[in-house]
Write a structure and sequence with these properties.
The complex is a heterodimer of chains A (about 290) and B (about 425). Chain A has about 290 residues and is mainly alpha-helical. Chain A contains 11 helices and 2 strands, in the order H-H-H-H-E-E-H-H-H-H-H-H-H. In chain A, strands 1-2 form a two-stranded antiparallel sheet. In chain B, about 45% of the residues lie in helices and about 20% in strands.
Chain lengths: ~290, ~425
């Protein structure tokens, strides 16, 4: 029984939808980048998100390093772990059908999740909101926790920066060129395998970054990523695989739509994204921002 | 190449879904094998009928894994070890599996256990929807179901069974302990956040009855799916309802996240109160006292209640890596002990109905729950305790979390069998 479809409720859900959309955007962006260059459907993305949150918790718990250091360190650590995985395992599968790398990353996700379950149990660990971002601001129609505002802001900045680097810089143009024709780019003297490795690390680091952002809001628990990742895949499909701007825009947009569903019919909010995905696939099989070639 | 990508994704998603189902299945089977006990008293070549097999069916990896899960297997094993691993000359075996909180997975495991693995009794089964399915199946097969984890009072109400004993707590008891306590303290308008399955609905219904009977009003509710990570929109709806009490009719990780996020939106600092209608000590431990202090909750077991509970808790913690038992895990221990007592007297575990009848005819007594009885509808009767979570300053040690507010005596803690919809008693 919703409390009426007032403008107040609507505004509240729009703001909260943007907050959830921040996570969808950050995660689908990483997936889109990895898919664009490596043609790998990275099912371990949710596990890297979870790792980001746990590393952040671990840095505080074992090393006494707070939120702000974690924001930089955790993505670096998890990104390095991603690079290691790419070098030792994923790289061997590029010549095979994408299904193999999907199964590999899916298996890795299950293993990581299982190990953390074993060590930390299902209730997980708590992480406090950093002192500087505690409290809330009264917007009239709702109290917006400052931390959530920060998450929305920083996610948007990171998303746009990533978009800028890939679409507007020379490095980005190499990246896009390598996506189209790796052999030719290699012939121009660009070290494509290294670029691939770094790209994977970057995508993984984005997931870990999202994990650090999520830690103070929800319990840091082993299955926090597995629930999220399926929705994020739907977001990527809706936005158009490999489209950077597509994944950012559809990430935020789907957060909004989900938020609205929570007002009008809460029980359906977990399925609304998939209904949309089915619809988009029927009407525009390449996704909203994908280029049909 | 780009055109068939979405199709590829859709295909691989399906593949992954299939794979995940398959992987989970093996996981469960592994669990079953892995938890076989080291009670080396099994007679050689004894065969299936010369054993009593206890199946712990629980949530091993989901939101309820810490309040039941492995700890429930440890608790069952403790009860078995205390009787020396045998009963009436039969070896006792403990096996376990993960039901993933899905009724169809739970009933499949239960069916397989009863049909091919000679399991005589299934214990625990958190998640009411799974428990209701297992209870029906247990009746059909004339085995025994000792429910510790689930909450729905329907198990001894309209879905009661001569083969089921509901041990630790139920939604009626929670409503009449926590709910009544809060209404008494002036909380007369409520808004519910309820988990969208049998348990959430049952708990909301029972608390609503208590609230309305004492002149209070329910202003609204939201049903949320199991395992919700972000409660913010639901919390805002609760906030704008202006209800004095926000009732959390959920459990485990859901409750923990809801309580955490309520603080963010200033629910409590703006004058509303949270009522955790089912909060386990594992949840309080996960939340930390800073976030959980002041919560009113009800339990039928707290490790630091008396010498008996402390003795049991110590044994448990030694095997569980220092974690104190939850009331669900203590209930597994207590129910298995009483079950074995009945089997010892009957000298057989084969007729489930007869075993449950014997259990009902025998008064219960163990270190964790003290003395008690079992009603004719299968409802185990003992006291419930209303606690308040201590402040960080009040807590003297790790796991020192509760102070007692009120004891609800056994005769008032659970619904009178005559007032339930159970038809077993009307014969």
């Amino acid at each position: 029984m919703p409390t009426g479809f007032s403008t107040q409720a609507l505004l509240q859900q729009l703001v909260l939808g943007l907050y959830n959309g921040s996570f969808y955007a950050l995660l689908s962006l990483g997936l889109a980048i990895i898919f664009g260059l490596l043609n790998v459907i990275n099912f371990a993305h949710g596990a890297f998100y979870m790792l980001g949150a746990f590393v952040s918790w671990g840095l505080l718990h074992y090393a006494g390093l707070g939120y702000w250091s974690s924001l930089v360190l955790a993505p670096l650590i998890v990104g390095a772990f991603g690079v290691l995985l790419e070098r030792t395992m994923l790289q061997r599968l590029y010549r095979l059908d994408p299904l193999y790398s999907l199964l590999l990353t899916f298996g890795l996700a299950l293993i990581l999740q299982g190990l953390f379950q074993l060590k930390f149990g299902s209730s997980g660990e708590g992480y406090e909101v950093p002192a500087a971002l505690q409290g809330g601001k009264d917007l009239g129609f709702m109290t917006l926790p400052i931390y959530r505002a920060w998450v929305m802001g920083i996610s948007l900045v990171v998303c746009l920066a990533t978009w800028y680097v890939t679409e507007r810089t020379k490095l980005g143009s190499y990246l896009r060129a390598a996506t189209e024709n790796p052999g030719l780019v290699q012939a121009f003297g660009v070290n494509v395998p290294r670029m691939v490795t770094v790209t994977y690390g970057l995508g993984v680091a984005l997931a870990a970054f999202a994990g650090v952002l999520a830690a103070p809001i929800q319990q840091v628990s082993p299955d926090m990523g597995s629930d999220l990742i399926i929705v994020v895949f739907a977001v990527v499909v809706i936005g158009g695989m490999g489209s950077i701007m597509g994944s950012i825009v559809s990430g935020f947009a789907l957060g909004l739509i989900e938020g609205l569903t929570k007002v009008f019919y809460p029980a359906a909010y977990t399925t609304v994204v998939f209904a949309l995905m089915a619809l988009v696939l029927l009407v525009r099989p390449a996704g909203l921002f994908g280029k049909a070639q | 190449m780009l055109t068939n990508l979405p199709r590829q994704i859709a295909l691989t998603l399906c593949a992954a879904a299939l794979c995940s189902a398959a992987c989970k299945k093996t996981e469960g089977q592994e669990g079953k094998g892995g938890a076989t006990p080291g009670s080396g008293a099994a007679p050689a070549g004894g065969g299936g009928s010369n054993k009593v097999v206890i199946g712990v069916l629980t949530d091993m990896s989901g939101p309820y894994a810490d309040l039941a899960g492995k700890g429930s297997v440890i608790a069952a094993q403790l009860a078995v070890d205390e009787v020396g691993g045998t009963v009436a000359g039969m070896a006792i075996e403990v096996t376990s599996a993960d039901h993933q909180n899905k009724p169809e997975v739970g009933s499949n495991v239960a069916r397989e256990w009863y049909d091919t693995k000679n399991v005589d009794v299934i214990v625990d089964v958190p998640t009411s929807s799974v428990a209701l399915a297992v209870s029906g199946l247990t009746k059909d097969k004339n085995k025994v179901f000792l429910a510790s984890g689930p909450g729905s009072s329907d198990l001894t109400g309209k879905a009661c069974s001569p083969n089921t004993v509901h041990w630790t707590y139920d939604t009626w008891a929670l409503a009449n302990a926590t709910g009544r306590e809060i209404v008494k303290a002036g909380g007369d308008t409520w808004f519910f956040l309820a988990a969208d399955y049998a348990f959430g609905a049952s708990l909301e219904k029972e608390v609503t009855k208590v609230v309305e009977a004492s002149g209070g009003k329910v202003l609204g509710d939201v049903k949320h799916p199991l395992k919700t990570a972000d409660f913010s929109s639901f919390l805002l709806q609760a906030q704008s309802s202006k209800a004095k009490i926000v009732g959390l009719a959920n459990a485990g990780a859901d409750t923990v996240n809801a309580i955490k996020q309520a603080a963010e939106f200033g629910i409590v600092s703006k004058g509303q109160k949270l009522a955790g209608l089912l909060v386990f000590i594992s949840d309080v431990n996960a939340l930390g006292l800073q976030a959980a202090q002041g919560l009113i909750l009800s339990e039928s077991f707290y490790w630091d209640r008396d010498d008996g509970t402390r003795e049991f808790a110590k044994k448990f913690a030694d095997k569980a890596g220092g974690a104190m038992p939850t009331m669900v895990q203590a209930g597994v221990y207590s129910s298995v002990k009483h079950y074995l007592k009945a089997v010892a007297e009957l000298k057989s575990a084969k007729d489930g109905k007869a075993v449950v009848a014997k259990m009902e005819a025998t008064p219960t007594d163990d270190v964790a729950f003290g003395k008690g009885t079992i009603d004719g509808n299968g409802r185990k009767r003992h006291a419930m305790y209303v606690y308040e979570v201590k402040t960080p300053a009040e807590s003297k040690a790790k796991w020192d979390y509760y102070k007692l507010i009120r004891e609800v005596p056994a005769d008032q803690a659970f619904n009178a069998p005559g007032n339930t919809e159970c038809t077993l008693l009307k014969k």
